[in-house]
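Session log. Operator J.P. requested a structure for one protein chain; no other inputs attached. Running the standard single-chain path with token output.
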Amino acid sequence: MRDQLAARSELLAQLTSHLTGTEVAGRKFRPSCKALPPPVVAVVGGRGMGKSYDFAWLRDVCGPVTPTAYLDCADDTLRTGAAESPESRSLLTEALRLLGIGFTSAGPARAPTLHMTRLFAGLVAVASGTWNADQDERIAAELRRLELISPSRGNWAAVVQSWVAKLMAAYAALPMPLPPVQKFIEVSVEVLLQELFQRGSRKAVGWYAAYPGAQGSARWGLTLLGSHFRLGGDQRRRAEYFLGQALRADLEEAYRTAGGWLLRTGRPLMLLDNAHDELGEQLVRDCLTHRSTGHPDRVVVYAAFRRGDPPVLQGAHGLASLSSAVGLAGGRGDGLCVHPMVVVPYPPLPPAGPETSDGLLSHVDPDAMLPPGLPRALYRFTGGRPLAMTRMTDAIEELRTAADAAVPPGPAGPPAPTALATLTLRSLLRHRPATPRQADTGPTVAEALREELAPGELGDLLTRVSPAADARSAELLLPAAAGMTTPELRHALDSDGWPRCDRHFVADHCLRTLLLHRLYHLDTDHSSWLGMHSRLVMHYAAAGPDSWQAYHHELAIGRTGGAVAYLTGSLGRADTAAWLDELLHIASAPGFEGLSERRRLAFTGGHREPQRRVERLLNAAWLAQDWLELPEARLEAAVHGALHALRDDVADSSVLTDAATHWAESIRSGRPLRECDCSRRGRASGGMD
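Structure written below.
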């Protein structure tokens, strides 16, 4: 698995090297887009596809060689900061401040520190809209927040003290009664400009003379900026847009001379994680708008989205893969940069078929102590989603390390077999990884992974509706006092990039299994699990006496008698394929108990009674469709034998003969026996084959 992640990181390093023109993770390529601004690269993939991991990796490897800023647009600290002073801060001003800090903190050691004078001046003008003569402590605190993007180098505390003293004196000189807010902004800007001019920043601050309505006056431009921001609405939006361009102008200034370029060696890199939020879309849209009005810049922008259909991505050039982007960037001409924005999909990792799956966990199991089928089972369960694969392989590595410590190596080599040899996905999900402060009381692997994929209230409510097949049945399971409605849950799933399936309300089988696992373990007596499935049994039974949906949920709570009786009674129906399809639907029920009994019934043959033969096939199919079961030759033989044993009992024996071959192959290759949009989507994006 690490090889697969490394291969994708290698492609990302190549693309980034082409776009920035600098060395990235040991890869150095000629810079693309010499005559054009680099395109905004939109990386699109759902939760857990590895976007955040790769962006953080790029930040770490690119930061020492070129100015690099990383921003998580969904970071709650942005909202907290903006809420502290809503009249003088917004999500965008908080984001620009953090981006400015990122750029000034990165870059090669030999290069001088970037100056964010324009951005600093603009943010001070905006903040001054809430200042007055009795707020010296608040003003000092705000200036300290802006220290890392200020043009001053040295004793910032002394600078702040001096500025505040000058501001207080200027405010005190204002006539009474108190003047309008704009006058305070104007006075603040005047004091600011005097200080900046003394520090050689006259040219940088003069940039604000181009602000709409400034009439060539930087002082008036900054005053209008602060006033417009405080007014809100479209006026604030105009001020925010100009602040974003101030950041770009500061970056361009650093590269204005050949010396600036040579010292920094690469174009600046902006990484916008979770850009699907309103803030991220605004940052991307402002960048595209500014460039489209004849203001090219050299900032390389990567933005991570969970879906490919937000308005800001409309009209973007879609690429088939990351490899396609690298090919265009490395080709002759500007094949990549002729597009203002390109969309690169981030699908699940490549498949772990029979020929590659054995090596999937080789980095954590060098002595091959794990069950042979575990790698394929792990890949089938996660669907190639990097976050899930990483969390589970980390847990395996921890268990392996603990086993090595508990069982010392023998004289001839590796330690003797331990519990690793019987490790299952079920036991892995129940494992509690050790943490520095929580040796054995932290969340289980299943709990931690579920929280990452479906956090907070959304995850709690999805847990309740996880057994549902559609919106109607989900509505039956949703508590009356729930904080979200069923359509809102559907919208939340869509917004996070989760797929849709006509047979499951929660369509991704990895997320669905984690939610079902949590529902089962929600109460010590499993009352929530029993209650939800019992409610669905009654719902479907009311629609007709012989409903396979009702038997499906009966299986989930451990009652198999009704399903066996129904399938035995309909064994001789004319449409054998339809009968077998119903059996598969029923046997796709989730189950977290009674595994040993299921295995006993599935692996025991030689029955004379049709009812016992049907029971055997039902349990064999139930095991084969369990996402947490390990594929094994014995299960292939069980389904093959169970199907052949019923050939004389059905109208069309060829259906069972064909199914015996296909089911065994599906088990061997890690594919589900019954296709739905979940499994078809997995194979289309590189999974389960």
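Operator note: The longest helix spans residues 233-254.
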